[in-house]
């Protein structure tokens, strides 16, 4: 749900000008023709649509249509204005699709009224409309009116556009052959703004985007700026939100914000939320092929992709239905960063490129262009965030697993056997001194959370208001692959409480730092990596529709699922569970006094409480039996095996210590034929001061396996130059970065 395109811009700026030049070497306007039009829906509302058609398209060479419907605007507007990029990836843009973008109802240049997560209508008349009918009407118009299309339509979208892709599946249009909902919102009571009904205060700044109706069609943002200018205030969101007090403070800013008022007035899972839940509407006969995509560290939409895949698998078992989960935050699979990092952890190189080229492009290529007898893809393409490898499964959750219970021993251990004697351990919970969800305070005023999903949890686990339970050092690898459920038996001195449960991988003391540590003061020695977490309000323990107070001091069962994982806890690591009642300001504070509507709680409702956890509480996990530790399936794809490399350098060897200043032209030889449109250079470890200047580009050789350039060098200098990953082979696989390091003579 975050402003994904803003993130892309920031990432592009961070990668520097050479990266941008490489990406922009392919100009959309040179290869595509743009047309803007309005498409009329069945109730007469006109939706603004931009169509980009490959210039190579003819009646004898038709192209499929790829549609994205979005509430975020389809800028740039104007027939002569082109974006720098089209479609899900550079690969698909270059292969050629008729790319179509549409403003949904009530957004930007489209007519009508915008509704968050538009309720789906089961039985439609000619005047009943929802996102599925708008998708049907749009596809129907496109295949009939866009010249040189092959009659096949695909749909894709990420985050909120992922919801529109998921809802578009219900259009059941015969031309819709393939759809890829990516990080799709499936239910606002469990995604984005809430987890199990607990409000994410970290989303507070997003309400202007979705709660201010526009008065007329526009190409500009019509809504107010966020109520807090994060560029001008101290970015300690913990303190800012704490000082604001109860959630009633929001009326100061959002008294007229439609979505905020709807959220406040529907604190429980009533018809308002149920009507917006897309999962309940899927029929048993979906004809469209589906590839759902998500990130294991997506703090915004993790529930959506996992549950969308499972729902279609259950309700429509005959549908081509595949799931992809990688080591990414929100949308991280859609842009390449070279080294794939999340928070402090490194998972490998070019993982987004692998997804875009080897998974996504194959899916659409097969179903929309008819290439190949099959996609060649498995049922589930899943990344093990412990072993840091891709794995294929023919079913998710996997077939070969057994349920393992891990009991929360009052002594602080995790036991496989139930306790012989019921005991308990307690912790204080003070809503005026809540446990922070992160120790990176500068991130607490972001629009949405991000890094906490894999962040080091030592800062929390060493507080007295957080319980920790852990195993000893593991004698062998242990792989959890599938679902996790918390079965807590608790008591509280208050009449309401939240319980935040975290699954953590504790690294050994001798764990080395990796080469790309983003924060110099962080050490991976004894790092407590968050693997999965979830919040559960005790008020909803029996029903999300009808909340119930706790009886002070009475033992009570609070059971809830955490989202799935695929994570190997390696030999020598420990498995840890943490339990706490606050995670602020990620989640709004529970008053710990039961009130009918927590959004309207008063300061006097906030009270300290003591929370007790009994030792018959346990975590139930899916333990893969031998799937990784014995008879391990090979990693299905190792980018290093066939990514292009620099294999030689002339006229001097890399590392030479006495290079003549008269030797200025350097030629690199690559292991594979390269795409001659792309190149980039960068600084080495010695910094920009030692970066040799490229005086002139001589370009690629005729066979595209060599590249020459002229250097500007001075005597008695040490120089470095990184040959960057924007170089790529003809398949789009990026070059393994190559460091040139040499010294010139006196």
From TrEMBL:
SUPFAM superfamilies attached to this UniProt entry: alpha/beta-Hydrolases, Galactose-binding domain-like
The keyword Amino-acid biosynthesis appears for this protein: no
Gene Ontology molecular-function annotations: dipeptidyl-peptidase activity
Pfam short name (any one): PepX_C
Keywords of this entry: Hydrolase, Signal
Domain Xaa-Pro dipeptidyl-peptidase C-terminal: 361-624
Keyword field contains Hydrolase: yes
Record's signal peptide: 1-22
Name of the protein in its database record: CocE/NonD family hydrolase
Organism: Spirosoma endbachense
Lineage of origin: Bacteria, Pseudomonadati, Bacteroidota, Cytophagia, Cytophagales
